[in-house]
Specification:
Number of helices: 24
Strand content: 5-15%
Structural class: alpha/beta
Largest sheet: 12 strands, mixed
Number of strands: 25
Helix content: 25-40%
Length: about 700
C-alpha cells in the first residue's frame, strides 16, 4: 500500500520486502519440489537467509584492521552486499528510477525522481571538510562515510553520503583512492576506485573532442578562403542546425535565413572564428599523473598551404602551436558536471565554455565551434549520479570528481539535491569538500551553494593529531617514508602549537554563518591528552562541539558521538545566518583579494602582467561578475607548501587567470601549482596486481 507521495508507510518497506521474499521462496518450493530441502527446516534457514538479504547485519570489525581492500573484499564475500535494487528501494527510489550497473552500483534517473519528490522537504545538509593535510591525507573521505554510517546504521536516521569519484592519477600515484578506509568505506572499493561507471572517461572524451575541434578549425581557417570555408561548413540545400543558429543570433544575423541567403560579409563573419592562438586556454586532458605532458607541441608533421598563397610558389608550412595537458578532473567539463542543475543547464553550460578569443578580442565558445550538442551527448549518462553502499549498507551517491587544489573540489549539485529530497525532513546528507577548508570548503560555500541555492546547517572539520603536530613544528611528513618519532609518541606542546591551523579553519567556517563540529579522527598512536588538547582549542575557537571519532577501526559505532554532535548542531543552526564571503559584482581583483586576506590570512595579492591583461579582457567581455575559484597548494594557507600552521607576512602571487565561463567561475592559478601532477619515484601502481585464478584485485591500498 503506497501513500500519495509514492513512499511506503513508515515501518512497512522492510516487512513488505520480507513477506514478498518468503512468498517467492514458498512458490519456488511448490513449483520445483526438489528445491524444498534447501529451506528445511524453514524457520532456521529462511530466517538466516532473510536476515542477510533484508536487514543491515551488525558490523564485526577485525583487530588489527586489515588493509582497505581486504576489508572491502571481506565485506563483499563474507557479509554480502545489499542487492542494488533493495538498496535503492530502502533509499526511497522507485524501480524505474534506477538503472542497474552490475550487482553493486546503479545510475539514478534525475528528472523523474526529482519531479516526483519536488514537494518533499529537504534533509539536513552537512559539509565535511578538513584542516590543511599532510601528504598522507587526514581521513576526510573516511569521516564523511563514517559519519553517514553512524547516522544511518547506528542512530537510525535516514542518511546519505555524497562523495566524489576518484581520479586514476592519485589512485596509482601517491594519495590513493577516495572510497574512505578501514571500516568506513564504500564497497566494493576496487569498483569505486577503478572506472566506476565511466564518467571520467566521458569527460576525457568530451574535453579532447573540443580540443581537436579547436586545432582542426584553425588549420582549415589558415588554409582556406572565406567562401570555401563557408561552403564546407554549411552544406548546400540543408538548413542551419540549432548550434549554428545560436552563432547567427550571437553575430546579429537573422537565424531564419537559409545558408544560401547570407551575404558575402555575413558568410565571412560566420565562418571565420579567427583565433588569436596565444589566448587559447583549452588543453587536452588524461586521467593520469604525467608531468611530461605539461608543455607539448601539437601539429608536428602536419603541413598546410597558407591561405592566400600559390601552390608551388610558397612552400607549405607546419601547422604547429604550443599547448599542454591537464589532468581530467581539472577540466572545465568536470566543473560543469559538478555545477549543472539538470540536463538543459548542462547543455547551456557546455555550449558557453570559452576556449579562447578572436584577434578582435571576442570570446569564442564551444558552441561557436559547433561542439556544444556533441559534448552534451557524450556527457548525458555522466550527469546521472551513481548509487553505491557503505560497509554497513547505508547509501552513497558518487558523482563528479574535481580536485580542490586545481578545481572546485566538490561532488555534484544534482547528487546533493537528490539525496536531500530522498533523505526527507528528518534525514541527513553529508557531502564532502576536498582538501583543506581554505580551498574545498571556501569553494563549496562561495561557488557551489551560490549556484545550487542550498544552505548547509553544519560544517564538520576533520583534524588529526598527526597533522596538527606537523603544523606545530614537527618534522616533514612524506609519502613512502616512515613517520618520525614525534608522530608516534605523545607530544602535547606540538599538538597545542599546531592547533592554530585548526582554529583558523574554524574561524573561516564561522564567517559563512554555519555551526562547526570538529571531528578528531583518531589514530592508534593518539593519546587521550593530545585529543583533549584539540577539543579544548576547538571549543575555545567557537566550535559548536569537538568529538573524537574512531570510525576507521569501528565503523559507524566509532562515529556515534560525532553523529549526535552533528544532529545537535543542525538543530541549533539558524539558516538565516548563512552568507557568502563576497559580492559577485565586486571587481575581479577585489574578490581575489578578499579570499586571500579573509581565508588565507595573506597581506595582499600580486598579479602577473598576464593576469592583469586577462582581468581586463574578462571584465570587458562581461565575465567580471563570476565567482572565483583559486588554484593553489592544499598543504598551506599560503602558496608555499612548506609554510605550516598559520603563516604570516606573505602575499599570494597570481600567475594567470583562466576563465571557466561555462561552469560559471574564474580560475586564478597561484604560486607553483600544476594542473597535471607528476608521479613520485615509487608510485602506488607497484603494489597493484591481480590474482589470475580468481580475477581478484590485489594491493589497491
Amino acid at each position: 500500500k503506497k501513500q500519495k507521495n509514492g513512499q511506503s508507510p513508515a515501518g512497512c518497506p522492510g516487512d513488505l520486502r520480507r513477506r514478498r521474499r518468503i512468498f517467492r521462496i514458498h512458490r519456488l518450493c511448490i513449483v520445483f519440489p526438489s528445491t524444498a530441502f534447501f529451506f528445511s527446516p524453514p524457520p532456521l534457514f529462511l530466517l538466516a537467509l532473510l536476515a542477510n538479504m533484508t536487514v543491515h547485519p551488525k558490523l564485526q570489525p577485525r583487530s588489527p584492521v586489515p588493509s582497505d581492500i581486504e576489508v572491502s573484499q571481506q565485506i563483499v564475500s563474507e557479509v554480502g552486499l545489499l542487492p542494488i535494487a533493495d538498496l535503492a528501494s530502502e533509499a526511497g527510489l522507485e524501480p524505474d528510477e534506477v538503472i542497474p550497473w552490475g550487482f553493486s552500483k546503479a545510475k539514478v534517473q534525475l528528472k523523474t525522481t526529482l519531479d516526483r519528490l519536488k514537494n518533499s522537504p529537504d534533509g539536513n545538509y552537512i559539509v565535511c571538510t578538513g584542516i590543511n593535510p599532510t601528504p598522507l591525507g587526514e581521513g576526510k573521505s573516511t569521516t564523511t562515510i563514517g559519519l553517514a554510517q553512524a547516522l544511518g546504521a547506528i542512530l537510525n536516521k535516514k542518511s546519505f553520503a555524497c562523495i566524489r569519484q576518484p581520479s586514476q592519477g592519485p589512485t596509482f600515484g601517491i594519495k590513493g583512492g577516495a572510497a574512505g578506509g578501514g571500516y568506513a568505506q564504500v564497497v566494493p572499493m576496487e569498483e569505486f576506485n577503478l572506472h566506476l561507471t565511466g564518467d571520467i572517461h566521458a569527460i576525457t572524451a568530451a574535453n579532447n573532442l573540443l580540443a581537436a575541434a579547436i586545432d582542426t578549425r584553425m588549420l582549415h581557417e589558415d588554409s582556406q578562403s572565406d567562401e570555401a570555408l563557408y561552403k564546407r561548413l554549411c552544406l548546400s540545400g540543408k538548413p542551419f542546425p540549432p548550434v549554428m543558429k545560436k552563432r547567427l543570433v550571437k553575430l546579429g544575423i537573422d537565424p531564419n535565413k537559409s545558408p544560401e541567403d547570407l551575404t558575402a560579409e555575413e558568410r565571412a563573419k560566420f565562418a571565420r572564428l579567427d583565433f588569436a592562438k596565444e589566448t587559447i586556454t583549452w588543453q587536452r586532458v588524461l586521467d593520469t599523473c604525467d608531468r611530461h605532458l605539461r608543455k607539448v607541441t601539437v601539429g608536428k608533421g602536419q603541413t598546410i598551404q597558407p591561405r592566400g598563397t600559390v601552390k608551388g610558389e610558397t612552400p607549405r608550412e607546419e601547422h604547429i602551436r604550443e599547448t599542454g595537458f591537464d589532468i581530467t578532473v581539472a577540466s572545465e567539463i568536470m566543473a560543469v558536471l559538478a555545477l549543472a542543475n539538470d540536463l538543459p543547464d548542462l547543455r547551456e553550460k557546455l555550449g558557453n565554455m570559452v576556449v579562447g578569443y578572436s584577434k578582435a578580442g571576442e570570446p569564442i565558445t564551444s558552441d561557436d565551434l559547433g561542439c556544444g550538442g556533441a559534448l552534451t551527448v557524450l556527457m548525458k549518462d555522466a550527469l546521472l549520479p551513481t548509487l553505491m553502499q557503505t560497509v554497513e549498507r547505508t547509501p552513497v551517491l558518487v558523482h563528479a570528481g574535481p580536485f580542490a587544489n586545481i578545481a572546485i573540489g566538490n561532488s555534484s549539485i544534482v547528487a546533493d539535491k537528490l539525496a536531500l529530497k530522498l533523505a526527507g525532513e528528518d534525514g541527513y546528507v553529508v557531502t564532502e569538500a576536498g582538501f583543506g577548508a581554505d580551498i574545498g570548503m571556501e569553494k563549496f560555500f562561495n561557488i557551489k551553494c551560490r549556484e545550487s541555492g542550498l544552505k548547509p546547517k553544519c560544517a564538520v572539520i576533520v583534524a588529526t593529531v598527526r597533522a596538527l603536530k606537523m603544523h606545530g613544528g614537527g618534522p616533514p611528513v612524506s609519502a613512502g617514508k616512515p613517520l618520525a618519532s614525534e608522530y608516534k609518541e605523545e607530544n602535547i606542546p606540538l599538538v597545542t602549537a599546531g592547533c592554530s591551523n585548526l582554529v583558523k579553519h574554524i574561524q573561516n567556517a564561522k564567517k559563512f554563518g554555519v555551526n562547526v563540529v570538529v571531528a578528531i579522527n583518531q589514530f592508534k598512536t593518539d593519546t587521550a591528552e593530545e585529543m583533549n588538547a584539540i577539543r579544548d582549542a576547538s571549543l575555545e575557537a567557537g566550535a559548536f562541539d569537538a568529538v573524537v571519532s574512531n570510525h576507521w577501526a569501528e565503523g559507524g559505532k566509532g562515529a556515534e558521538a560525532l553523529g549526535h554532535a552533528v544532529i545537535m548542531a543542525c538543530k541549533a543552526n539558524d539558516e538565516t545566518n548563512f552568507k557568502f564571503l563576497y559580492d559577485l559584482n565586486s571587481p575581479i581583483r577585489e574578490k581575489v583579494e578578499t579570499i586571500s586576506k579573509e581565508i588565507y590570512g595573506a597581506d595582499g595579492v600580486d598579479f602577473s602582467e598576464l593576469a592583469e591583461q586577462q582581468i581586463r579582457q574578462y571584465e570587458s567581455s562581461g565575465f567580471g561578475n563570476l565567482p572565483i575559484c583559486i588554484a593553489k597548494t592544499q598543504y598551506s594557507f599560503s602558496c608555499d607548501p612548506k609554510a605550516k600552521g598559520v603563516p604570516k607576512g606573505f602575499r599570494i602571487y597570481v600567475r594567470e587567470i583562466r576563465s571557466c565561463v561555462g561552469a560559471g567561475f574564474l580560475y586564478p592559478i597561484c604560486g607553483d601549482i600544476m594542473t597535471i601532477p607528476g608521479l613520485p619515484t615509487r608510485p602506488g601502481f607497484y603494489d597493484v596486481d591481480i590474482d589470475t585464478s580468481t580475477g581478484q584485485v590485489l594491493g589497491l591500498f
